[in-house]
Amino acid sequence: MTDFRYARRSAILGKSVFDHAPGTITMSSGAAYPPLLPDVVREATEAVGPLRAEAMQYAPLMGLDDLRSEICRFVATDGIEAKPENVLVTYGSKSAFDLALRVFVEPGDRVIVTRPTYMTAIHIMRTHNVQFLDIGQDAEGFDTDELERKLMRLRANAEPMPRLLFDVPDFHNPTGITTSLARRKRMVELARQYNFVICEDDPYRRIRFEGESVPPIKSLDTTGHVISLGTVSKILAPGLRVGWAIGEAGIIRRMALQKADGGSNAFAQRIVVQLMQSNKIVHHVDELTAQMRTHRDAMLEAFAEHLPEARIRAPLGGYFLWAELPEGDDAERIAELGVEEGVEVSTGRLSFPGDGPGNCLRLAYSFIGEDEIRRGIAMLGTAYRRYKSAARAA
Amino acid sequence: MTDFRYARRSAILGKSVFDHAPGTITMSSGAAYPPLLPDVVREATEAVGPLRAEAMQYAPLMGLDDLRSEICRFVATDGIEAKPENVLVTYGSKSAFDLALRVFVEPGDRVIVTRPTYMTAIHIMRTHNVQFLDIGQDAEGFDTDELERKLMRLRANAEPMPRLLFDVPDFHNPTGITTSLARRKRMVELARQYNFVICEDDPYRRIRFEGESVPPIKSLDTTGHVISLGTVSKILAPGLRVGWAIGEAGIIRRMALQKADGGSNAFAQRIVVQLMQSNKIVHHVDELTAQMRTHRDAMLEAFAEHLPEARIRAPLGGYFLWAELPEGDDAERIAELGVEEGVEVSTGRLSFPGDGPGNCLRLAYSFIGEDEIRRGIAMLGTAYRRYKSAARAA
């Protein structure tokens, strides 16, 4: 075995969130619900048939023109005004976020995140060797007062200022919280005042079970400080790997030039164009939202029945539920016992940029149906009882 | 317009190689020949039909198991021994190369390349802010003597040693040269002696018109110093965006963890599995090779007729032809006049990591048919005459 000197960013090893324990009920991943994966046979046949010369060839660096136009139309219904020059097609919003980091962040730079935040975003940021400036959440979402206090202190101490803020303001991953309009406005003000870029990751906004939508942060941006990251992974199919970044044209062009592989997958892009043009995507989102609501309800009921000790804030949309166990409980051990029982969940610690509390769990209700959700939470309840009796015996 | 501080790597701007002048005969890009784009209607229909639960879902981080097994079988015929744990599926070999850079290179590190080398690889390396250690080529390919001299001098001066070597040893892009077996062995010896990693980019090896194959550098590697980068872009279709890296398992795992977007496109991966399992890929390569040979022949004949001033070494395979104009000729101006005439070629300078000679052109014969090749070179000949008479008049 050869001993190479690896780059500092490559010190990040450990378990990938994409690897699952086989044969378990999987609540650890926000994967798509298999029975509702869209039927794209017609679209795919057309793409590789009559449209083969486009679908099988290199795509333009920015993505297919038709797709960029459709994305503009799609986000216009959320109040985001964008022209094709503002849209870069990527492999899902994760790779769009990586491109933004490549453009704005040097190793050691500070990035603002919530604590907890999206675990894979933490992984991606770690590959850029960032420092985290972590900010709390309350029922109104992102705590802009805490951010302002911390920014003022950094400036007063002449410390390096943060370059970028990452957040999931709608149905936050993992906490499910939606940030209020007032807070969003304040986030944009602070971004302008302290000159950092906001990456608004917005995969779940259309999966809303109840209540009124809040305008995207990007729709409040008049100075180019916000980049909106979108994807079809959570509203159509993750396997398509089609996402986008929307921002000021100069920023988008810089992000495009950081792409290592040119114009992404023309084939999948054409399928998404067709699904958007035919409005199939809108009907699919409606069906999916109804389905995810029944999943959430099943999970809430199962918690009440099998694990009432957990404190849960019912999510109003999205794919995830955040469970807080009584203080002092060891979520990591409970998750291990869960795998023994046949259910896989994520410990909350994975979602913290630093050393978070040890008593939280993140549960996805997206991938499995109601019955499995009930059985899985029952297993988790059994794991919890086993943990408690072992703790009493010790 | 806001004034952000961008990361240093984002200073790379300028024209993308994916943007083409509209309405011209394109010889500037190694895109696929449209009439030979493979018919994958059956494979695509199966992937999004019966296999939808896999194709539309997140793929495993390393890629589909079936594909990694097929890739092992595919490269075994080249003498490369690999197990699935040695194979990472990526979006083409470009993104595989980017992952290798993420693992091995810090900003300012030295990377060994030929002068000239693959223009997009230069772009990708620049986004990592590397320094280039450039090495010449002769008829036997990579000049290992020059490399050894330079390595010895760096060591003697206690300068930082290079971390990585990038090369296209088969039908080199842009020069078309294939590096000899003796030189390949020497490259591996030097990699071991000076402890750098060789990234062997191998997209063209199967597009051989005449002569005997030379074993891949990876097949000569017993110590894990070589990473083989492969892709179906040049042998099936660029639009699939399926490539791979093959290397020592520990390196491959590190590269996987640098992926921002998880397990790539399951859909396209399944199509490639099917094309490999059915051996359709082998038949396709045979057909494609025959076609590319006629393209090369047409281009050579057209040069002899319309631009005999250019010095050309007939490529024995691959997609590209390297033309050296008489010393002092301004290839950039000739290329501009070419666009006016209706043909687009790449100036040789784009393929040099530093400031290369100004009298070379890179021409791809992959994308267009024989007739367009003949017409395009005739236009280039006209552009050359115009350049010469303007030069005489000045």
Widest sheet of chain A: strand order?
2-10-9-8-7-3-4
Helix content of chain A: 25-40%
How many domains, in number, for the residues of chain A? Answer: 2
Low-pLDDT stretches of chain A are: none
Report mean pLDDT of chain A, rounded to a whole number. 94
Shape verdict of chain A: globular
Write the layout of secondary structure elements.
The structure is a homodimer of 394-residue chains.
Chain A: E1 25-26, H1 41-48, H2 52-55, H3 65-76, E2 87-90, H4 92-104, E3 110-114, H5 119-126, E4 131-135, E5 137-138, E6 141-142, H6 144-156, E7 164-167, H7 181-194, E8 197-201, E9 226-231, E10 243-246, H8 249-257, H9 266-277, H10 280-306, E11 311-312, E12 320-324, H11 331-341, E13 343-344, E14 346-347, E15 360-364, H12 370-393
Parallel strand pairs in A: 1-13, 3-4, 3-7, 7-8, 8-9
Antiparallel strand pairs in A: 2-10, 5-6, 9-10, 11-12, 12-15, 14-15
Structural features:
homodimer; 394 residues; Aspartate Aminotransferase, domain 1; Aspartate Aminotransferase, domain 2; 12 helices; 39% helix
Write a structural description.
Two copies of one chain form a homodimer. Chain A has 394 residues and is an alpha/beta fold. The first copy, chain A, has helices at 41-48, 52-55, 65-76, 92-104, 119-126, 144-156, 181-194, 249-257, 266-277, 280-306, 331-341, 370-393, and strands spanning 25-26, 87-90, 110-114, 131-135, 137-138, 141-142, 164-167, 197-201, 226-231, 243-246, 311-312, 320-324, 343-344, 346-347, 360-364. Chain A has two domains: 15-30 and 282-393, Aspartate Aminotransferase, domain 1 (Alpha-Beta Complex), CATH 3.90.1150.10; 41-278, 3-Layer(aba) Sandwich (Aspartate Aminotransferase, domain 2). In chain A, 39% of the residues lie in helices and 14% in strands. In chain A, the strands form four sheets. Chain A has a seven-stranded mixed β-sheet with strand order 2-10-9-8-7-3-4, with helices on both faces. In chain A, strands 11-12-15-14 form a four-stranded antiparallel β-sheet. In chain A, strands 1-13 form a two-stranded parallel sheet. The interface between A and B is large, with 86 and 85 residues.
